[in-house]
Amino acid sequence: MMTIAIEALTDPALGSDLDALAALLVDAVAANAAVSFLQPLSLDQARAYWQNAIQALSPRSRMLVCRDDQAHIIACVMLHAAWAPNQPHRGEISKVLVHRAHRDRGLATALMQAAESAAHGLGMRLLTLDARAGGAAEALYRKLDWVCIGYIPKFALDADGQQWHDDVLFYKTLPG
Prior knowledge:
InterPro entries: Acyl_CoA_acyltransferase, Bact_Acetyltransf, GNAT_dom. By secondary structure, this protein is α+β, with helices and mostly antiparallel strands. It has 4 helices and 7 strands; from the N terminus they run E-H-H-E-E-E-H-E-H-E-E. It has a 7-stranded mixed sheet with strand order 1-2-3-4-5-7-6.
């Protein structure tokens, strides 16, 4: 049985971590995941994205990664603190990615729980996220008791650039 560890990644991220995150993002896009990018996504483009995204994290934001027993990054999630001064209680979840070779092992659930715990520890009491309507992510968030607030039709192109997909919006109130 594989042992996993979830940890916060800090800036500056190690080059090997950026390479692993790039490979994770390329894998997600190749699998037609709705994660803001179109195919083909090169490793260089993905690495540049992660380098910028990690550097841009505010002190109250977190990049959580899941490592396997050889310390390879196999999954991730980002928790962004709201930028607005009147919303210190709010955060947003993005880039919940699990490498295809490691899916169906509960990693996305574990990452979401870790992100919610991190958010709670940072004083956040309201989280939001969005996902492609009808996909595996929507089912995951519903299973984790996120509240669906609606759909936006033709929100974005699928990663293959061929069809539009609808988006579903969720929120979750944390205790406290």
